[in-house]
Amino acid sequence: MPKDISNIFKLTTQEQKEYNEDPFFDCMPGAQDYANCLMQSIKTKPTPYVLMLDSKFGMGKTYFSTRFTKFLRKNDINCVYFSAWENDYIESPFASFSKEILLYINKEAKRLTKAKNKIEEVSTATLKLILDMMKSTSTTFGINAGLFNGQININNENLLNAAKDFMETFISEKDSIIKFKETLKSFIENDLPNKRLVLIVDELDRCRPDYAMKTLEIIKHFFDIKGLFIILPTNENSMNKCVQSLYGFNEDKKSSECYFKKFFDDTECLYEPDYLKIIQDNVTSERLQKAFDEHKFSTENGRYNSLDTLHTKLNEYCKCERFTMRETVAICEKIVHFCNHIKKKLDCEYLAYKICQKHSRNDRPQLALSMDHPFVINGTKQNLLTWKVPKEAYKIGHIASQQSYNENYPDFVDRNFSSYNDFYEFHKRLKETLQQGFEPTPHTVDTGYFRTSQSFARNSNIIDNALNQKFNEIKAYQAKWDSDDKDDELKAYYNSIIEKEYKLHDYATQ
Questions:
Q1: Rounded-to-integer distance, Cα 347 and Cα 489, Å
Q2: Residue 426 predicted with pLDDT over 80
Q3: Reported confidence tier of residue 406, pLDDT bands at 50, 70, 90
């Protein structure tokens, strides 16, 4: 299984070196352009500013955010990356935030030698606020326990003392908040390049609902500081559900959305993944070497069993179902496994279709095979396996002419064939009839029906040409798809192995 590199800050220092030079070297096309635009927004928009980058789960929010952090630092914009999910075991989000900010600032102290005193001030103000908040929380808990828990007895004197302590702590905390904001604002404004500090709060949509909302409230009340630009890559729908569950907006979706959006200045969508690039990077000829060695793949682009067709169809179906990056990579892994071990003919389109259909999150997947595929009902194959006598073979305007041919020559009747073999037998029989020639019909001269040998010869050429054309079209179609009268068996085989993967290795069923 490939190493997870979505969060590059979990890699070793040596492994991160390449990202320091080129943060987006392993990203999809479009990441660099999107990052440039987002950086300009950070530089130009008034602060404090809170931006939500909305995207579904698995669409690469962490993948982009960690690289974007490196990108901003490379362009002299100080940026702190914070994974909320990895810290939601800590009661106070503020303490978690502060720790990351202080660690980053102290790490940057070597470069910001002129700001050494300011760094100490920021650290001191932050730690003071954390301690006051902890005291406030503890005192508040004590009061609440005494007032609302009948099992705990507090006399009036103790209650008054607790209230006095709480008020003193509250005032102290308020002073600490002001000091914290002023100190951090001064540090950003006077000591940081571009007068900006970016804080990326990632994976909020994976946290406990109560922790996620606490985090938003902390951002709203403590980090409304000039020069601070906060980015939250998250899933808006998931966060709305947090609001609904915590604040009882279940019956009023609009209210929950309005409440949630008050935390943000703006919302943008994360750039769309390049499915084809993901597929091409994960479904490679090197990884399919076994299938190539067994000549399952064609080297001719566009063939039903070419790598080009496999990439094209996977791209089409993944886009259609809007699979996440994670889901797309998982599908690619499955495709590689099937291609290397499948025992029958390799049908790239149907394999991609069935696997994507199986992974779909929709009750009714919107996937569809091309009408040209042999397995499609009422598709090209069934259309080819029909026979209709050309209208030109009959005397124009005379229905009786057609009736006469149908009565005397049964092969003139329009028909559908159940197999290629049925058509070829019919083709052989009708060719023999055409070579033998037609007998004149017993009608009189007055009726005007085809009595002369010249008329029959002319009609016979029309039918023969149509028959030859149909024969050539069917032969070409069979060659294109390597299709035969066992297509239904092949379809059943694919359905079986994809439904129950172990059958892929069941030699008794091959």
A1: 13
A2: yes
A3: low
DSSP-assigned letter for residue 298: B
Find all residues with CB under 8 Å of 210, minimum gap 6, and list them. Answer: 246
- DSSP readout, 43-85? HHS-SSEEEEEE--TTSSHHHHHHHHHHHHHHTT-EEEEEESG
pLDDT at 261: 74
Beta strand ranges found along 290-416 (DSSP E): 386-387, 415-416
User: In the numeric block, which tokens belong to residue 273?
Assistant: 């993944």
d(CA 220, CA 262): 9
Cβ of 6: how many Cβ atoms within 10 Å? 16
Average pLDDT, the chain: 79
The residues near 9 (Cβ < 8 Å, ≥ 6 apart) are 16, 66, 69, 81
Q: What is the pLDDT of residue 218?
A: 85
**Coil, helix or strand at residue 221:** helix
Distance separating alpha carbons of residues 360 and 358, to the nearest angstrom = 6
Most confident stretch, 137-151, 245-259, 431-445, 495-509: 495-509
Query: Quick check: 304 and 481 in contact, CB under 8 A?
Result: yes
Report the run of H or E that residue 327 belongs to, with start and end.
helix 325-341
Q: What is the amino acid identity at position 407?
A: E
The CATH number of domain 1-91+195-272 is 3.30.300.30:
no
Q: Which tens digit of pLDDT belongs to each residue from 76-135? A: 899 999 888 888 777 777 777 777 877 777 776 556 555 556 666 766 666 666 666 555
Please list, residue by residue across 210-232, b when 16 or more beta carbons sit within 10 angstroms of its beta carbon and e when fewer do: ebbbbbbebbeebbebebbbbbb
Provide the pLDDT for residue 437. 64
What does the block give as tokens for 497? Answer: 């192995």
Transcribe 386-430 into DSSP letters. EE---GGGS-TT-HHHHHHHHHH-GGGS-EE-SSHHHHHHHHHHH
pTM: 0.57
Where is 129: in which H helix or E strand?
helix 116-148
Q: What length is written for the chain?
A: 510
Radius of gyration over alpha carbons of the chain, in Å?
A: 36
Burial class (CB in 10 A: 0-12, 13-18, 19+), 50: buried
